[in-house]
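Entry 0007
Protein: Guanidinium exporter
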Amino acid sequence: MAWLFLFVAGLLEIGWAVGLKYTEGFSKLVPSVLTLLSMGGSMALLGLALRDLPLGTAYAVWTGIGTVGTAMFGIMVLGEPAGVLRLVCITMITCGILGLKLAH
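Output (structure tokens):
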């Protein structure tokens, strides 16, 4: 169950990272509320996952999911560059996340 909590926490991290772009400095109510709810949910689920997972592993996986997901959102939705080096780096982060999961 801890890994499921961690995975959903990572998805919510993507949500709040992306949400920050749409809050316009927390001047828009709905995006701001959704972003804050995503932040709270992400932290709460990370906290639940930490009951059973090592801190270093959980934190690295959580931030990795957020990093990869946010970068992919930027590429696919916002039209950010998808150069070969950038995609290789995203792939390496993903491999690191999988490696941490397998090493646990």
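Curator remark: The helical segments are 2-23, 29-49, 55-76, 84-103. The mean pLDDT is 96.
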